[in-house]
Amino acid sequence: MLLTVRIAALRPLTRHHPLRYGRRLAEALVTRSQHSATATTERTAAANEAVELYRRLDRDQPDRHRVGLARALVAQAAVPDDRTLSSTVALTCEAIDHLEDADDRAAVVVQAEARWLAAACLHATGLVRDALVLAYQARASWLRSEPSGVADRVALVRTLILIGDCRAALGRPEEALAAHQEAMDRYRAIPLLRQGRWAAIRFPAAVALAESLAAVGRWDDALALAEQFHLELDNKLALRLKPLWARQLLGQLLRVMASCQEELGEPEAARQAAEEAVDHQRCLAEAAAPGHEKGLAEALHTLGTLLAGAGRRAEAADRLTEAVDVAREADDDDDILSRALLSLAEVSLAMGERTAAEPLLAEVVSVGRMHDEELPERWRPRLVSALTLTCRMWAIEPLPAEMEPDAVDRGLAAGRESVELARKLASADKRYRELLCNSLVHLEDALDRAGDPLGGIELLREYVAIRRDLFADDPEDERLDLAEALGALGERLYALDRLDEAADAEQSCVALLRDGGTEIPPEALATALRELAQTWHRLGRTAEAERVAAEAAVIESGVPVD
C-alpha cells in the first residue's frame, strides 16, 4: 500500500481506536518524514505529528512506546528545515534519555542514530570534545547492534567519518587518519552491487581520507586518492543529475589536490586546481546552496595562499580579501574567517602595508582569545601566529615617525605572550616545537632592536636547545636549522663581547655543517668559518683564525676541500 494511502486510512481509525492504530500511524508518519524526495514542509509536518502522537500514546501507556517516541524525535531532528542546531541537540538528547537502559536491537539502533546526530550538531557548533564523546558512544551502539544490513553498515561508516573529523579538529591527525581509513575500509567491504546506492557516503569518506593523508604529510597517497575520485565525479552526468552535491565534493577534492601538488613541487598545477575549486564554489554561491559561503571562502583562501607563495602578492591580497568578505557571511564560522584574516595580514605585511595588517591581526587575536578555552588545539596555534606577527609588525619592522611611542612596547608584549602560549603547546605536544622556535626568534629579535640584547640571549639558548631536540629526531632535515640557530647565538654573543661563548657556539655550527657532507650549501659553511675566524682573531688565536679563514676562501673559490 502506498504510504500516503496508508496514512490517510489510518487517521480515522486512530481517532476512534488510538491505542490500537496510533502506533501504526506514527510509524508511517516517521517513515514519510525520512523520505528525502518529499518536500521539507511535508516532512516536518509528518515528524511533528508523529512525535505528538507518540507522546499521547506514552502518556496513556507508559514505557511501552519509548523506542517509537525516540525514533520519532530523531526523525524530527533530522529533517533539514530551519530548526536551530541547539533545538536539534535537545531533541536528540531527549531521544537518548528515553533509551538509556536499552537492550533490544531496535532500541540500540535508534540510540546510535540519536547519538550520531547529536554529535554532528555539536561538532558543527564547535563543541568538538562533547561531539567526540557522543560519536564514540554512537560507534559503540552500532557495534553492539551487530550491523548486518547495508544501511546500518553505512551508518557506522558515517559515524567513523565524524570521529575522524573530531580528532582532526583536536589536532590529532594520526588518530583522524586511522578513523577515516577504517571508514573507507568498511565501505569497501560492502558488496559492490550495493555500493552504488550509497555513493552519497562514499565520496565524503574519500574526501575525509584524502584530507587526513595530506595532514600527516602523505602527499602522494592523498593526491592519488583525490585524483581518482575527482576523475569519477567530474563528468557531465553527475553535474547534471546532482549539480550541487557534485560541485561541493569537487571543490573539496580540488583543494586537497592543490595542497598536495604545492607540497610536491607542482605550483602551476596546484594553482589551476585551486582556481577550478573556486569556480565550482562560485556556481554553488550563484545557486544559493546551503553553506556555500564556507566552501567558497575555503577555496579562495587556498588560492590566495598559493598565489602568495608564488610571489603574486597583489593577486593574493585580492583573493584573500574576498575570502574574508565571504567568510563573514557564513553563520558562526570563525574558523575559516580567522585563517583568511591571518593569511591576508601576512600578505599585507609582506607588501609593507602595516596599517592594513594591524586591524586584521587585532581581529584574529580577539577571535582566538574568545575560542581558546573551548578548543585550544585549534585556536591557540593561530593565536600564537597572530601575536608573533603583531610582535614583528611593531617591534621588528621599521616604524614610521608618526607611530605612537608605545608601539614597540605593544609589540614586545605580544611577543612575550606568543612565547608563553607556544611553550604550553610544545610541552603538551612536540609537534608545536617549530611554532615555539618561530616565536622565540621573533621575540629575541624584537628585544635586540629595542636595546635589550641581554634579554634575548636566554631565548636564543632555548631556541638552540629545541633545535637540538629536533635534530636528534631527524638529523637530515634539521641540520641546517640547528646550524642557523647556533650561528645566531654566536653572533649575539660576539656582539656582547662574550667571545669564549661565541666561539663555542660557532665551533659547534662549523662541526655540524662539516658533518653534513655534500648536502650542505658551500656558502653556509664558508659563512660559518668566517664568523669563527673573526671570533678567534679577537681572542688572539691568530693561527687558528687564519687557517679557517683560508678554508673559507677556498670554499668560496669553488675548489674542493680535502
UniProtKB/TrEMBL annotation:
Source domain of life is Bacteria
Q: Which residues form the Anaphase-promoting complex subunit domain?
A: 257-279, 295-333, 338-372
Protein name per UniProt: Anaphase-promoting complex subunit 5 domain-containing protein
**Organism of this sequence:** Micromonospora craterilacus
Taxonomy, top ranks, is: Bacteria, Bacillati, Actinomycetota, Actinomycetes, Micromonosporales
